[in-house]
Structures are given as structure tokens and as C-alpha cells.
Amino acid sequence: MSLNLDQALQTFIAEAYELLEEMETCLLQLENNPADLNAIGAIFRAAHTIKGSAGLFGLEPVVSFTHVVEDVLDRLRAGDIAISRTLIALLLECGDHIHYLVDVVAVRSQQPDAAATEREAGLRQRLQLYRQTSVSEAVSASPGVSAVRQEKDSSFDLWHISVRFGTEVLRNGMDPLAFLRYLNSIGQIVRITTLADSLPELSQMDAESCYLGFEIDYQSDASKAAIADAFEFVRDDCQLHILPPHSKTEHYIELIKNLPEQATLLGELLVASGALTQKELEDGLQQQVDAELKPATPLGEILIEQRSVEPELVQAALEKQNQIQEHKSKESRFVRVQADKLDELISLVGELVIAGAGANLLAKASQDETLYEATSTVTVLVEQIRDGALRLRMVPIGDTFNRFQRVVRDVSHELEKQIELQISGADTELDKTVVEKISDPLMHLLRNAMDHGIESPAARQAAGKSATGVLKLNAYHDSGSIVIEIADDGAGLNTERILQKARERGLVAATAQPSEQEIYNLIFEPGFSTASAITSLSGRGVGMDVVKRNITALRGSVDLSSAPGQGTKVRIRLPLTLAIIDGFLVGVGDASYVVPLDMVQECIELAGDSKVAAEPRHYINLRGEVLPLVFLHQHFNTGGGQRRRQNVVVVKNADQKAGLVVDELQGEFQTVIKPLGKLFSNLRSISGSTILGNGNVALILDVPSLIQQLAQQQVQPRLASQTPALRN
Amino acid sequence: MTIRSSMFNEVPLLHIEGEMTIYTAALLQQQLQLYIGQYSELELNLSQVSDIDSAGLQLLMAAKRQVTNQGAVLRLTGHSPAVLEVFDLCNMAAFFGDPLIIPDVSHG
Predict the structure, then answer these.
(1) Could you name the CATH architecture of A2-138?
(2) B59 and A203: CB-CB below 8 Å?
């Protein structure tokens, strides 16, 4: 059983996290639009599903706490209690706590620690407030209802549940006993009779089929839907009848009729449990016989007539149907695949690309037209497979963005600022690994913007801006990379203060006059913070350098622009994927290098006069523009003689252009990036390696860092004498 | 799951060890059938049962019923905590009619 359960548990955990996220999003929606009934419904369903599945795995702490939350949500949904800011705040905390419980109990299979227990007690107390008021309200508001209830035929106040499990239940990995245990966790089984009438003789039975059924008298204040949901996982595979407390005698009789066992047996059970008296039973059975003689009433009418007694029945049924439909449509649209399987596929595709390139090279060398044509077709297909496989890993960044809504809400409360988060470009897709790794740096930047960027409402109004600050998160694709922008409309960066601070810390020499851009970049230096007061959020001077380091590790770059009084904008540029790129193969001496194709603008020949002129100057005139050059031959100290004819590959990264001087242009090449070992982690200008079709290794050029070095070399002569301490 | 069998006063005594679940149900059924019908008395010692689920429970029920129909006796003894919990959950104690020893710690 353990193996099966383990897999199911993983699914539960993943699902629970998703549901909690959804719950959070809906709660935040609700905060903006308290009348949103859909959101309330979605929150309820999320809590409800988590509780239901957690029960199946026996995650007691999760069940018992979620049950209380669900109860409050149920009342909220029914309109018994009104939505308020405090309630939303409370529910958000509850969501966090459930998240914690799932983390501890399901993922690490530990028990919650003391602090968590204390927190839970506090939450329960606050939740209790909502439960109690609603009860007293309900009672005082509707004295008539309780009076009516007492007039009903039976004063039996227990639920009656009849369940007959289908034969396949055990084989499907369910244990009927687990459902009983779960029932005991949301209520109490007062009386239970295990039925095995369908159980054949020992020699005839199939040990792996289920023959059991239960008649249960059940005490619980859970709703009918909640009880029915206990059996959600076997819904299609069992006969389930649930009679609410105070059901009419006829309903019990009806139940008896509907069940496979003999009427007398069940009748006796019900009499024994107190649901019916012997007289009622006899009368009822007689009535049924009479009724059968009359013309048949359409089934639907009977149902409606019966259900009308307990309106929650109809509601529960409808909701159930909706849920199942929703579930089904979701299921058919998505397939859950383990991430490592996907990774395996991608790495295989990578090998395929390399092998394909090898075959292509051989075909070219063999000069066999048809063979070459065939390999070309294969290459095209491989390219498509590669793109498709990579797209599988692509996820929209929206999920990550939406998570920040909560952060912004919490932080703005804490700082007593009014901040609105505007999200655009949420559909922009990028590699899953990149998304995961970018989340933390983004969070940091957001917090920074809220803490330092956006001013207090008073200060904003004094500056003639609206009291509510706006924080914008935007994402878009741009030449093979994704750009994420975080913009605030706050006070902007104070260049003077940054410069002053940098001088104090010895980051810039006292006499240096760095450009505005250079000053902005100073805040990414380790140990730099301009906040005059250290808050709990930021200002300790850790962070911005870490942000930069994280982004650089993803082969990305970050830059910053600011206008005093208008705000600050941080722009992060990241590669779309980390695994495979389209490369442009160039030859320098004996060696080959790959330039990411997205960055290549054009190729020109460097010959004759311009070559003679270019060599000492390190730049050429490109249609009136100054194009700085990197002579890769010298830069990498490559062996092999220099060719007479050389070419310039013009590359562009983030508005900066440069020319790479190479010997040979070898054309486009699909490149599977193999990371360099730790030994080479300090190597600049190289971002990875790849294997060519002929088995040779080619190094992948890190164009942004090359351009950066170039820019520094040109700045250096100017700054060198002034700022020996300016770090790279 | 392993079953150790021994004879005690000409009554076969089966020690069931390990789990009585869907995974071992077929094997258990086979083993029980070997003994049922052959002897007028049979004792199952359940003290080493680590886990029992619906499949295990219904096997015991089927065995009990068949033995009783044949006028023989099936005794369950030494119920392990796992067995007790399930008997209690399903209210099966009366069906089997064996004396149960309820451990001190968990009551109900």
C-alpha cells in the first residue's frame, strides 16, 4: 500500500499548494470586490478539497484545522456572516497556516512545533468568533425553523449513512476503512453495522474484491456536501445514501427499498438505532406497497419533493456536479508530468541535436546529394522537436507575479503605505527553472521598491502625487530574452546620496565623477544601502548585490533607471532557456567559438584599409557609428596563424554594440549548452561549452560580459587615475 | 506476511505475522482454505499483525462465516492493536465473538 500512497501523497501535496495559491488569489480578489460570490465559492472549494484529501491520508492536523476554516467559509458562502477586511486577513493567515501544516505533516511527516500549535490556537480562537456569532444569529433570526423541525415525524438527530462499496474499490487503491476513519475526523460514528451480505464463501470469493457495506449513524455538524465528499474518491464506485438528521420516515423507508439487502434486516437496523419505531417501519413498508399500485410519478418529481425538505441536498448535488465537470475539464486539458522526466527528455533532445549535427557534417563531406537532403530534413525535424520540448518547460510568469499581490498587500500594511500592484505581460513564458530562480530576486526588488521607492501617503500628497503608490510588474520578450520590469512611481534614486555613501565606503575615489548610470549601478555593490533607517524589510545592505549575483548566474543582466520624483525602474534581462541556444559558429585560429545567434546583428568583412586602420585603434567606422572591436585572436591568445582575411561579427546586447573580429564564419549551429566545471567559474567572456558534430569542443562566448569588459577598457583610461578602487 | 502453523492439542494454530491487506489477501485466502473444512477447530493468533485493511477484514469474516456454517469453531486470539482498531471502527467484535484484550493506553 505504501508505494501507491506515496505517489498519491505527492499528488496531494502538489494539489494542496495549488489550491492554497488559488485560495490566496481569490481572497485578494475578494478584498477588492467583496461581492464576488465566485471567489467565495472558489475559496470554499479549495479548503474543502484540501480537507477531503488530507483526510484520506490521515493527516489529522491538516484536517482538523481546515475543518474549522471550512466551517467559517461555509457560513460566509451562505451569507450568514459578512466579508470584512479583518476576516480576509484572518483567512489569509489561516491559508498560510494550512500551507505550513501541509509542509510539516505531509512533506516532512513531522508534527507541528510548539510555536505553530500556539499560532493555531490563536487562529482557532479568532475563527471561533465567526462561528459563534453566526450560530446565535441564525438561531435568533429564525425561531420558526427550529419550531418546524420539532414538528417533524422523527426526532432522530443523527445522520444516517448507507454505503455499499463496489468490488473494484480495493483494487483501485482505496481502503473503505480509511473513509470511516475520515468520517470520525469530521464527526463521530455513533453506531455502525458492517454488512457482508454479498460476501461469498471463502473458496468462492476473490480476495481482492471488496464486498463490504456499512450502515452508519453519524453525529456531525458538517454539511451534507461535506459528508458526501468524504466518499468523493469512490463516488463512482459505491452506492451511497445519506439521510440528514430529522429526515421523514418515508425517506428511511425509501432507503430500505433502494438497498440490496433484505428490507427486514435494514428495517431492524434502523429501528435498533432509533431512527424509526417498529410501527413507523411497518406503516411505511405498507405505504410503499400501496404507492406502487398507483400510477407512477416521474422520478424527478419524487426527488424534488423529497429534496425540498432539505434544500442543502439539491445545492450539494448541483455543486458536486459542477465540481466534477470542472475537474474533468481540467483533467483533460492538463497532464501532470514529473519535472525530471521532462529534464530527461530535454537532455535527450540535446544529444539528438548534437548527433544530428554530426550526421549533417558527414553528409556534407560525403557530397552525396540525396543523403545531404535527407539529413537536412532530419535537421529541420530535430529543430522542431527541440523547440517543442523546450516549450514544454515554458510556463507563464503570471503565477509568480500573482504571488506578489499578497506580498505587496502585507508589506504595504506593515509600512502603512498605500500601494497598488499592476501586473502586465503575465502571459509571457519562460523556462520553468528560470521562473523558480527569479522569484527570490524579484521579491527582493519589490520589497526594496516598496520600502525605499514609494513614499508615505503624506509625503506623496505633499509632492502632488496621489496617495496610492503604484508598483508595476511587466514582462515581455525581446530578441531571444525575456525582460522583466519593476517600476515604481516613488521618489526615485538620489544620486547625490548614493555617491556620498559610495565615497564613504571607499567604493569610489573622492575625486571621481562617475556617470549617472555608473552611480545607479553602485547600489548593486556588496554592502551598499542608502536607507537612513533600517527597517525589517530592507536597509541592511544585503540584497541588491545578491539580486545581481542571482541574475548573473542565470546568464541575465540587470540595470536600473530613475528619475528624481518620478520613480525608479529596474529592468532584468534573462535568457529564455538555459539548455539549448541557436548559435553562430565562428573560427578563430584553430579554435571554434559559438556566439548566441540572437545577439548577432550582421557580419562584415574586415579587409584592406579598414583592417590596417582598425588594428591599433580597436574600433571601426560602421556606417558612421563607432564600433568597438574585440580581436578574439588576441583576447583568447588562440594558437594557429592569423588569416589574411578577417571578419567582424557585429553583436548587440541591451543597446550596446560591439564587433568581434574572427577568422572564419562557419554558420548557424544549434548549441546544447554544457556548463563549465567549477574550476572555470571565474572565467569571464565564456559562458559554457558545447560539442560540435565532429566531436570538437567549442566555447560559447558570453557576449554581455565581453561588451562590458570592452566598455570598461574604454572607461578605464579615463577613470583609472581617479578610481583605483572601483570594483567590477 | 508469513504464516506459522503449529498444532496445539490437535487444534491447528496459525500465527499470522505482518500485514493482512489487499497485498497479502490472496495468499492468506489460500492458506486459510487449506485448514478450513479439515478441522473442527481452528485458532488464528493475530498478535503479530502489523496492519489490516478491508481486504483482511472481509477474509476473516468469510472464514468465520464458513467455519460456523460447517459447525466448526474459529477462534481469533491475541488481537494486535491494528486489529483491535479495525474491529472497533467497524463494530465487528460481536460478529467474531472472541474475547478482546483492550490495551491500557488507547480506549475507544
Answers:
(1) Up-down Bundle (1.20)
(2) no
